[in-house]
């Protein structure tokens, strides 16, 4: 990311920009993430937060988009620095990709705001997300926007968060009988992991005897069949089938989400 240091004379100007990020994102969120969703995912390990910026296409149409992934840091002396990564990218219909990632140490002091903005070919913002960190308690912690959580949980009472605050992610399960089946599962899961898919639904990969020497591999979400094919041992074929199967799975999960079943979640 390109790093820009901001002196105190320009602090008020950039503080206003941060304030716009703080207020504007909440006030205008309802107008974004309708067809193209920008999401920042958070992963915690022993020393760092890792923030991963992603883009998801909820339409069947391929598009060219642009993203800005911005990090504002305000230290204890109110000095502000800004790092920004911006690039054009291609997004296939009903696809989800990782755009960029950044790591932040728990021990870093001050206030940090991360913002992701997606733009269409005309420069119009179409997707966004925002995460705020604060170190007032010592180590950096993610500031939870309760109003945003309330908005996300409007999908239905059956999707209410459990009392302990833990939401269990779905699993990718397999029941295969050949090396080709096991290889397909490996390629599918690698794509599933790399695209940062988070869902409460289980995905089940099953292989059964088919015609002649081939087997039949099925991919199901709950009991719904989303993709099926006769296997071949060729690596390129299995990788292609894994990509297609995951694309179909994402499309089906998006359909469920539009129907009010919030199966795609942020962690």
CATH hierarchy class name of the largest domain: Mainly Beta
How far is it from the N-terminal to the C-terminal residue, by CA?
Answer: 24 Å
Principal-axis shape equals: elongated
Helix content: 10-25%
Biggest sheet architecture:
6 strands, antiparallel
- Strand order within the widest beta sheet: 1-5-4-7-8-9
Give an account of the 3D structure.
This protein is of the alpha+beta class and 267 residues long. Helices cover 24% and strands 39% of the residues. The protein folds into two domains: 2-143, Immunoglobulin-like (Sandwich); 172-258, Double Stranded RNA Binding Domain (2-Layer Sandwich). The chain has helices at residues 11-28, 146-152, 179-194, 235-258, and strands at 2-6, 36-44, 48-57, 63-74, 80-91, 96-105, 111-119, 125-134, 141-143, 172-175, 203-209, 215-221, 224-230. It has a six-stranded antiparallel beta sheet with strand order 1-5-4-7-8-9, with helices on one face. Strands 10-11-12-13 form a four-stranded mixed beta sheet, covered by helices on one side. The longest helix is centred in the C-terminal third of the chain and has 24 residues, at 235-258. It is elongated, with a radius of gyration of 21 Å. The protein starts with a strand and ends in a 9-residue tail after the last helix. The relative contact order is 0.13.
Concise synopsis of the structure shown:
With about 270 residues, the protein is an alpha+beta fold. The protein has four helices and 13 strands.
Keywords, separated by commas or semicolons:
2 domains; alpha+beta; 267 residues; Double Stranded RNA Binding Domain; Immunoglobulin-like; six-stranded antiparallel sheet; four-stranded mixed sheet
